Amino acid sequence: MSNIDDQYREMLNFRDTLIEFDLSLDRAMRDLQARHDSVSPLWQDEMRRHYDAQWKPLHDTLRHYVAVEGPSYVEFLSIKLYALERYLHGG
């Protein structure tokens, strides 16, 4: 059974990995947007409208995660880690 020090280390690792994931997702979304922007003037048919109807909800959800939810969760974890660190090491 793990102790609270192990839980702290795992939580810290999770937060750091989440930050890396969020940055990677943001870069991928920016790259994909640039590719969309470059092909957009050339692709204006019925298939494009169908594609946009499928893509837009996913894109909006991912952008919201990158801009709001990801940073909020990292902040939440950081606050909890700070409190746990103070408990473990005093302060």
Key traits:
91 residues; rod-shaped; mainly alpha
Outline the biggest β-sheet.
none
Task: Point out poorly predicted stretches.
Answer: none
Coarse structural class: mainly alpha
Shape: rod-shaped
Helix content: over 70%
Beta-strand percentage?
Answer: under 5%
* Count of domains: 1
Helical element count?
2
Count of extended strands: 0
Span between termini: 27 Å
Mean pLDDT: 94
Q: Strand-and-helix sequence, N→C?
A: HH
- Rounded radius of gyration (Å): 20 Å
Walkthrough of the structure:
This protein is mostly helical. It has one domain (4-89). Helices cover 88% and strands 0% of the residues. The protein has helices at residues 4-39, 46-89. The mean pLDDT is 94. It is built from two helices and no strands. Helix 1 packs antiparallel against helix 2.
Would you summarize the structure shown here?
This protein is an all-alpha fold. It is built from two helices and no strands.
Secondary-structure blueprint:
Blueprint: H1 4-39, H2 46-89
Helix pairs in contact: 1-2
